[in-house]
Amino acid sequence: MANNDEDMLVTPWEVRGKIDYDRLIKQFGTQRITPDLKARINKITKDRHIMLERDYFFSHRDLDWILDEYEKKNKFVLYTGRGPSGHTHIGHLPTWMFTKWMQDKFDTRLYFQMTNDEKYFFDTHLSLDDVRRFTYENTLDLLALGFEPENTYIIDDIEHIDLLYELAVQVARKVTFSTVKAVFGFNSSTNIGSNWHPAIQAVPAFLHSWIYGKKTPCIIPCAIDQDPFWRVTRDVAERLGYYKPASIQNKFVPGLKEGGKMSASDPMSTVFTTDSPKMAKKKVMAAFTGGRATVKEQRELGANPDICSVFKYYKYIFMPDDKDLKDIEQKCRGGEILCGECKQILAPMMMEFLENHQAAREDVKDRVEEFSAARLRDEVRR
Ligand code: TRP
Questions:
Q1: Range of 355's domain?
Q2: Deepest of 50, 55, 202, 369, by most Cβ within 10 A of its Cβ?
């Protein structure tokens, strides 16, 4: 999905430049999450979530339909995933946290796909051992957020291909090379594994329906860069006898450096869940902010939280209380607080979060198998 407009580039494998989310909605043809839609979710869940309130989740496909069906007692399943190409960083967690919230509130099943095959195809520096190791490591991060095995099924693409293959071949027969060229920018030098991957990533959207022989709505919480996959998936869905998957799409958590999203390829811009709290603090203290060139200017003119990476962490993760957020925003804009001081507030929050998260990772180490989608083998009806 390359585009030539200025320098913004958003594809499932690369996100670059200054992201204009309004333009992405237009380009991808998704819908904005309106205040009405948020109110509807709040009413059904009898709760609110800051990631929705504060437009971290900002775009969707067919979310209104998912709620219609839910209210008609036609319950949906959740589907999300992770390409295990390295350690998880903090920027991956919000989508999963919100997924957990939806799972709790709507009391529904989650299919979580580990696309270790995708990462093996697309990043040729990675060995099979690497992607297997990161599948395990990333699974710990997911489970550390408190998922329960009763309604959580982790699909390991390589390990569980027998569960996916029958659906994947049906998808693959309906997707042409011209489609994946146009949608993903593939060309003749793209390896054939990459060309095939969109079929595999479509499968979990239909898996529940296929296993239980009952057409079941599915909604995919994900970052908006994954939308090209869902366009392909939606395009074939009805012809295969399934519902088009809906999606609810989030922005990127910015790296601690300027612009773009948090990316594992720039380690100082990225807090990994496996970083020592001390290292995380160092990264926070080196973060990009919306500050002025001099203290004097900042005191007089104030700083700009809209472009500040530190502020985004408060907004989407660490400051659920609207009053706290407003307070720091005002101090920032009014020049009352300097960026160094502000980072000193984020650093201990980040460190505490990591300490707890790392302890939770330890606790789930023996439980990984309980969540395996291998359990579904017994349920498949043929
Ligand atoms: N392609 C995604 C990645 O590289 C992984 C993934 C598979 C995914 N299925 C998904 C992400 C569904 C979100 C929703 O990270």
A1: 267-363
A2: 202
Looking at 256, 280, 298, which one is the last position of a domain? 256
Q: Which atom of ligand 1 is nearest to the CA of 95?
A: 13
Which residues are CB-neighbours of 317 under 8 A, at least 6 positions away? 90, 93, 94, 253
Instruction: Read off the pLDDT of residues 124-157 as tens digits, 9 standing for 90 and up.
Output: 999 999 999 999 999 999 999 999 999 999 999 9
Residue 369 included in any domain = no
Residue 79 lies in a domain: yes
Same domain, 349 and 224: no
Number of structural domains (the chain) is 2
Q: Domain check: are 332 and 353 in the same one?
A: yes
Task: Tell me the Cα Rg of the chain.
Answer: 21
Contact 30, 60 (CB under 8 A): yes
**Which residue's alpha carbon is nearest to atom 7 within ligand 1?**
81
Angle at 101 between CA 211 and CA 89, to 5 degrees: 95
pTM of the model: 0.95
Residue 253 is predicted with a pLDDT of 79
Q: How far apart are CA 31 and CA 323, in angstroms?
A: 29
Cα-to-centroid distance, 115 and ligand 1 (Å): 7
How far, in Å, are 118, 173, 352 from residue 358 at the CA level? 27, 43, 10
